[in-house]
Design goal:
This protein is mainly alpha-helical and 197 residues long. 60% of the residues lie in helices and 3% in strands. It is built from ten helices and two strands.
């Protein structure tokens, strides 16, 4: 069982990684885009966000939702919001599924109407492999940042993750599939007797 000092070091490391992930968000935004995947599917293209979502699902078979707490840029922004709003979320997780199912259906329908996915363009709509390279791209970045921060500030701790995140269902489904088949994987457990905050 790790001592309190090593837990604090691990938390500092985790927070440092998600802070760096957040700072790199202008470079990586389009790899996580829920809109570009639809645009690409409509043109019969497998784009970067398609690849990212598939990789998140596959990674969840082994590491669950480690991405959410250790690498997600939205987590980095929301942790910065904790000092303003730290109320825990108790309900409403179903909302993201009510948004996710029609969104995935639209991706599939777009690909079918395009005659299938025929080309691989991981840098679709990007310049020099980065997301935000033109002035007008900053408007999209600021909208996404507001979409992440406003629920966290208005509703509570990681509200975006609980209510709006389009990536979380891929990992949740991957974890559930892993559990159904009993595949070995990394699991984090909590010792309530040692828990401090």
């Amino acid at each position: 069982m790790p001592r309190t000092g090593s837990l604090k070091r691990r938390q500092r490391l985790r927070k440092g990684i998600i802070l760096v992930s957040f700072l790199l968000f202008p470079l990586t935004l389009y790899y996580l885009s829920p809109v570009l995947i639809i645009m690409a599917a409509s043109a019969g293209i497998v784009n970067g966000s398609f690849v990212a979502f598939v990789l998140l699902f596959l990674a969840a078979l082994v590491v669950g939702r480690a991405f959410c707490g250790w690498a997600c840029p939205a987590a980095g922004l929301q942790e910065a919001c904790f000092s303003v709003q730290d109320r825990p979320i108790r309900r409403g997780d179903w909302i993201k599924y009510a948004l996710w199912v029609p969104w995935v259906s639209l991706i599939v329908l777009s690909a079918v109407r395009a005659g299938g996915l025929r080309r691989f363009e991981p840098f679709f709509q990007m310049t020099n492999f980065i997301s935000i390279s033109r002035q007008e791209d900053f408007f999209i970045l600021y909208l996404v940042l507001l979409l992440i921060a406003l629920p966290a500030l208005a509703v509570g701790r990681r509200s975006f993750c609980h209510h709006l995140c389009w990536m979380a269902p891929f990992m949740i489904l991957g974890r559930k599939l892993r559990n159904v088949f009993g595949w070995p994987s990394l699991r984090l457990t909590a010792d309530a007797d040692r828990c401090a905050h």
